[in-house]
Sequence to fold (110 residues):
Amino acid sequence: MQLLHVTDLHYTSDQPFQRAVIEALIRDVRQRVSDGFSPEFVIFSGDIVHNPDEERIYETFEQTLLKPLLATVNLTEKHTIFCPGNHDISRKTVEQWSALSNFLANSSPN
Fold:
């Protein structure tokens, strides 16, 4: 079984360095595919994005990296496995949940 594993990408949108890394990755994978590499799954692990609260970050990730990479290896989203890291957790949501949790913990049923 062949797998393509990308880890700790820390994707951010609109960064020249990030674009260069993605272009190099796609170019390298394309070469490997022409040499016979044929993965059955693409795995993203660790920190997929750097800041999940960045506006439309996962949509940008999908358009900029995920879809082109899957097309390069002739796979679909059904052949993608995500194992998120701590940077993939919305800090805004955690803070909101924490505030609600604290409020509920300190509320008396009287």
